[in-house]
């Protein structure tokens, strides 16, 4: 018993304390170093922060360089894939553009009206800082779903700024280094976003679930299954972290009915395809109702009216285009019918001509046989005359001309 | 002379291969730890470190493993020191196994690897949740441990195959 304990101690001591020939530190020393790093990291010492920032900046750059071949392959694969899908995509895009043109104008009107009303209630946020950043590293971990961007405190990036892809919410800046920053994606389990569900204006808190999904954790109204349309998920602006109305995703009705416990949010953006993000911060615009704001309101009203007019014009044009297309379609149909009739008549004419020809031949034959009975003696070759042999062309001519034809 | 040069070159490649693979797996964007599949992930670094620490103690230096851990933490975005600690505990477990083993067998290594995985993951899980207040999916962790455990013999075979073909050929020459 005593011996086996000794063996265990010796083996452990050898494993953790023994140094190999080329090793400078024992395993135990390095484990202590790691623990010291962890302890120092949990406190906010300035010197340690600087060390961490420097280390992270270097590691991010090295990781970016190490990922170049892999990114090259990924990019080429994506390009090739897009190339093959180009034709189908183009057809779809043309259809989409037509429908979106009309929606765009309607959206403009609603936005302008929205701004007007928000200004009235003193809740209008404006962008104060907007920077575009490239995604350097997109290495996801089981602990943290985040991306590294190539802008840091040098570019006025601050902790808490919002990351957008187009106008969709991507995440929040959680770590700022001198040259780089880390954006915590909304798909991370640790990100808690105050959201509002539209239509219905239901308030909730959303957390990350999956690469493409989030989940509503705290919903005031549990009975969301009564809705027959997909629910839009937008930031609510509660808590003042995010501006209200930034689109995030949607809750599909079909899934909602099936799964009553978890309200799964499908994000609008694919976070695995992020290349560039927009880092923005918002601040509230002070807008009291004075003379200048009245002027602004008037200007906005004019703008709304102008946009409304444009919208109407566009609608009329689209209607006209539709009518023209209908007429074109009808003419084409009539044209097809006429073409078919023409072909049918031509066929009938040809058949008639054929029958006529056959009849003419028959009539000629009958005439020939009738004349043959009478004039055969005058045309037929015998041993005492030099007329025509029966069956020849000359014999037939002779019969038809009622006797011998002298040259 | 040519053979000696070949030996040196292949020997050097083989010597630095585990470390190169470890650093590439840590720095690259492709991470087996998070492939985007819901019920599939495994920790390739753990397999690599454990295999080379058990089989060839000089294959991976502790100092470089420590640095690789720091790099991994920086890239992944978790508190700096956790991966280093996990890697080094794994190295310690492997070194202990190497010391007590008289007749090496894959089955024993495999079982010991499972125990080590439980210890290492429990430590990192506790540190992240209790000290740093991270929210971690317990199910994901279990899946990760199971697949890391299941893939160990497969990668052991691949590593020993590479060793056999590279070093074996040099000696045959």
Distance between the termini of chain B: 11 Å
The total count of strands of chain B amounts to 0
> How big a fraction of the residues of chain B is strand?
under 5%
CATH architecture of chain B: Orthogonal Bundle
| Name of the level-1 CATH class of the domain at 122-287 in chain A | Mainly Beta
- State the secondary-structure class of chain A: alpha+beta
Nearest-integer average pLDDT of chain A? 79
Low-confidence stretches of chain B: none
> What is the CA–CA distance across the termini of chain A?
148 Å
CATH superfamily of the domain at 122-287 in chain A: Rod shape-determining protein MreC, domain 1
Describe this structure in words.
The complex is a heterodimer of chains A (407) and B (173). Among the domains of chain A are: 24-66, no CATH class; 122-287, Rod shape-determining protein MreC, domain 1 (Thrombin, subunit H), CATH 2.40.10.340. Helices cover 51% and strands 20% of the residues of chain A. Chain A is built from 8 helices and 12 strands. Chain A has helices at 2-17, 27-42, 46-66, 68-84, 86-120, 253-258, 291-379, 393-400, and strands at 125-137, 146-149, 162-165, 168-176, 181-185, 192-198, 202-208, 213-219, 231-235, 247-251, 263-267, 276-284. The radius of gyration of chain A is 44 Å and the shape is elongated. Chain B is mainly alpha-helical. Chain B has one domain (2-172): Arp2/3 complex 21 kDa subunit ARPC3 (Orthogonal Bundle), CATH 1.10.1760. The longest helix of chain B is centred in the last third of the chain and has 35 residues, at 138-172. Chain B has helices spanning 2-27, 44-55, 62-76, 82-100, 106-131, 138-172. In chain B, α1 (2-27) runs antiparallel to α2. Chain B is globular and about 50 Å long. The model of chain B has no long low-confidence stretch (mean pLDDT 81). The interface between A and B is large, with 53 and 54 residues.
């Amino acid at each position: 018993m005593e011996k086996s304990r000794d063996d265990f101690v010796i083996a452990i001591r050898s494993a953790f304390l023994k140094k190999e020939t080329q090793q400078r530190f024992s395993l135990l020393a390095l484990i202590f170093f790691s623990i010291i790093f962890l302890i120092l990291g949990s406190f906010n010492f300035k010197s340690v922060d600087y060390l961490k920032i420097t280390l992270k900046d270097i590691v991010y750059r090295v990781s970016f360089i190490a990922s170049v071949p892999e990114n090259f392959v990924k990019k080429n694969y994506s390009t090739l894939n897009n190339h093959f899908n180009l034709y189908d995509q183009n057809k779809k895009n043309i259809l989409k553009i037509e429908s979106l043109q009309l929606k765009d104008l309607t959206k403009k009107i609603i936005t302008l009206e929205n701004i007007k009303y928000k200004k009235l209630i003193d809740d209008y946020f404006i962008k104060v800082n907007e920077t575009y950043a490239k995604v350097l590293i997109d290495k996801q971990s089981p602990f943290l779903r985040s991306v590294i961007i190539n802008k840091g405190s040098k570019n006025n990036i601050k902790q808490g700024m919002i990351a957008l892809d187009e106008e969709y919410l991507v995440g929040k800046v959680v770590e700022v280094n001198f040259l780089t920053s880390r954006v915590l994606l909304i798909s991370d389990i640790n990100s808690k976003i105050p959201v509002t569900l539209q239509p219905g204006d239901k308030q909730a808190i959303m957390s990350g679930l999956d690469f493409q999904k989030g989940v509503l954790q705290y919903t005031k109204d549990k009975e969301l299954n009564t809705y027959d349309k997909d629910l839009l998920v937008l930031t609510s602006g509660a808590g003042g972290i995010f501006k209200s109305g930034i689109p995030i995703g949607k809750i599909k009705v079909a899934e909602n009915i099936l799964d009553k416990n978890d309200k799964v949010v499908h994000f609008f953006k694919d976070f695995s395809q992020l290349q560039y993000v927009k880092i923005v911060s918002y601040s509230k615009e002070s807008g009291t109702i004075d003379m200048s704001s009245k002027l602004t309101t008037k200007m906005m009203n004019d703008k709304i009216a102008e946009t409304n007019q444009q919208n109407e014009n566009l609608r009329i044009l689209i209607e006209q285009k539709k009518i023209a297309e209908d007429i074109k379609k009808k003419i084409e149909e009539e044209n097809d019918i006429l073409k078919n009739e023409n072909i049918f008549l031509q066929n009938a004419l040809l058949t008639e001509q054929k029958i006529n020809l056959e009849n003419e031949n028959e009539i000629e034959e009958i005439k020939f046989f009738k004349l043959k009975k009478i004039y055969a003696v005058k045309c037929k070759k015998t041993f005492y005359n030099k007329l025509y042999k029966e069956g020849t062309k000359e014999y037939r001519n002779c019969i038809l001309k009622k006797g011998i034809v002298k040259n | 002379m040519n053979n000696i040069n070949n030996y040196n070159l292949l020997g050097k490649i083989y010597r630095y291969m585990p470390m190169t693979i470890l650093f590439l797996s840590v720095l690259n964007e492709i991470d087996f730890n998070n492939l985007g599949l819901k019920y599939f992930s495994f920790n390739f670094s753990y397999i690599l470190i454990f295999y080379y620490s058990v089989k060839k103690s000089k294959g991976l230096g502790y100092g470089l493993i420590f640095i690789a851990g720091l790099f991994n933490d920086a890239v992944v975005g978790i508190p700096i020191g956790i991966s280093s600690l996990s890697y080094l505990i794994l190295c310690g477990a492997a070194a202990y196994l190497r010391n007590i083993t008289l007749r090496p067998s894959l089955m024993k290594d495999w079982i010991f690897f499972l125990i080590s995985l439980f210890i290492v993951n429990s430590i990192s899980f506790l540190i992240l949740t209790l000290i740093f207040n991270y929210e971690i999916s317990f199910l994901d962790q279990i899946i990760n441990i199971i697949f890391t455990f299941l893939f160990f013999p497969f990668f052991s075979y691949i590593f020993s195959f590479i060793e056999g073909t590279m070093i074996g050929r040099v000696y045959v020459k």
